[in-house]
Amino acid sequence: MKETPLSNCERDFLLKAIQEKKRLDGRQTYDYRKLKIMFGTDFGCCFVELGKTRVMAQVSCELVAPKENRPNEGIMFFNIELSPMASPAFEQGRQSELSVKLNRQLERCLRNSKCIDLESLCVVSGEKVWQIRVDVHMLNHDGNLMDAASIAAIASLCHFRRPDVGIQGDEVTVYSPNERDPIPLSIYHMPISVSFAFFQQGTYLLVDPCEREERVMDGLLMIAMNKHREICSIQSSGGIMLLKEQVMRCSKIASVKVSEITKLIMKALENDKTARKAGGKCGFAESMPQERITALKKDETAVEMTDVTERANDIVLNAEVLPQTSQSLLVPLPGMGQVGKDLPNSWGIEEYDQDEEEAFNSDEDKQTTMEVGEKQKAHEDVVEISDSEEDEVVILQPEAMDKAHKKTSSSSHLKEPAASKKRHRK
């Protein structure tokens, strides 16, 4: 299913608002939307809400054989899924251009920046290493998917714990969480992507564009940076020419945003750790009652419930009895229903009496006999005698029948005088 294009009025309205430094949701030019970070019950599960954009990331691991050219390093694998649940424009089971673009950008942001120590994932050199898989699912699309995906991916990696491993000779033993405490990943830094949308060939700039703003933008610049102001990756799309001053200005804005987001991630990790130690509710069980994960939220309305029973009884007693406007159904046989049986007809058509029906049937019989006579006259070779439309008796060769009829009549005339002679003799 393709996206519904914006009308010219909507496009002009958005561009006019951007020129006046106004946005649809009331933000300023360099403001981010409200950001929420939550963790699931299992380690490595993270939910991120960036405005109305919602993303879930899940980290998993397994023991596999290493790559031939890197026998002492583990493997990192990223997968971004754009499901129709996030937007009707996404198709199930088919990789779109947007999903490939987001996947490559996420790999540049996390794997190519060497933010994780891959050598610590080696169990047996050249034989067994840990493969870390990061699955990012888009739950709702309202623009700026890359920033939400990068935040969810790095937060889930920081929250993830892999099982402990023991080696005895050639045997590798993987211990369950009940036997040994899981081990966190070795993370050097936390790269986070910040997106900038350009309008009218770079004249106007917006941070964290929403879905409608992305439709009318001319170009997009994504900068992945950590809190130490180190640029991990940078990518420009849209075919616009950016000046050196514009890129430097965006990098300065990105450094401020990255430091704020990093503090928020660290605070969320600390709160989750404290809740798990205290033995309270955490993760999905705590998020559901507070409606943190559900896409549609509604405000609570105060309702007075003290005198509900009394008011309901008064309404029932004072209610007027509605007149019966329709006849009840009569069921003569099981599985059969009739409306208005043995009742006067209200369709304006008079019903036929029994005598009228008999007269009508007799007229039909006369008409059929007349039709038969006409057919007999018209067809001399074929004689048709029919009492009804279904049963027809056809007699072929009428000449033979006429000869037989003449013989029988002549024989009857010859027998009559003999009988009269006998009477005279008596």
Overview of the structural elements:
This protein has nine helices and 18 strands. It is an alpha+beta fold. Strands 1, 2, 3, 4, 5 and 6 form a six-stranded mixed beta sheet that branches. A four-stranded antiparallel beta sheet has the order 12-11-13-14. Helix 2 (97-110) packs across helix 3. It starts with 7 loop residues before the first helix and ends with a helix. The model is unreliable at 379-391 and 412-426 (pLDDT under 50).
How is the secondary structure organized here?
Layout: H1 8-19, E1 35-39, E2 45-50, E3 53-64, E4 75-81, H2 97-110, E5 122-124, E6 128-140, H3 145-159, E7 161-162, E8 165-168, E9 171-174, E10 183-184, E11 192-199, E12 204-207, H4 211-216, E13 219-225, E14 231-237, H5 244-278, H6 284-287, H7 308-318, E15 329-330, E16 338-339, H8 354-378, E17 383-386, E18 392-395, H9 398-425
Parallel strand pairs: 4-6
Antiparallel strand pairs: 1-2, 2-3, 3-6, 5-6, 7-10, 8-9, 11-12, 11-13, 13-14, 15-16, 17-18
- The number of helical elements comes to 9
Mean pLDDT: 78
Span of the ends, CA to CA: 113 Å
**Strand content range:** 15-25%
Extract low-pLDDT stretches: 379-391, 412-426
Succession of helices and strands: HEEEEHEEHEEEEEEHEEHHHEEHEEH
* Major beta sheet summary: 6 strands, mixed
The percentage helix is 25-40%
- The rounded Rg comes to 45 Å
Shape: extended
Query: What structural category characterises the helix and strand content?
Result: alpha+beta
Number of strands: 18
